[in-house]
Amino acid sequence: MSTGWKKSFGNVRSLVGNAMGGLRGGSNLASWVVAGTLAYFLWIKPSQELKREQEERAALAAASDRYRYVEKVKPVPDPQETGLIYGNKTKSNNPEK
């Protein structure tokens, strides 16, 4: 009974080993490190730098736009009866009180 799962585990291990190029041990690890390093410098790093440059260009374009809207005054609070002005919360329009 225990030989069944051991055999299937061995088959899976063999399949994974063959899928990774059939190399074992230190040479397998070294080949993956080389492949990962090449992938980083050929694909990942250039795309990150391109994205960073595009964001910098967009920020410069937004900062140099002299027609962009800039809020210069604070908004005036809405003077409603039960709203933002302090002291008006206890007052009411009911003549019964």
TrEMBL record:
Region (Disordered): 78-97
UniProtKB keywords: Membrane, Transmembrane, Transmembrane helix
Membrane-crossing residue ranges in chain numbering: 25-44
Protein name: Uncharacterized protein
Species annotation: Tagetes erecta
Lineage: Eukaryota, Viridiplantae, Streptophyta, Embryophyta, Tracheophyta
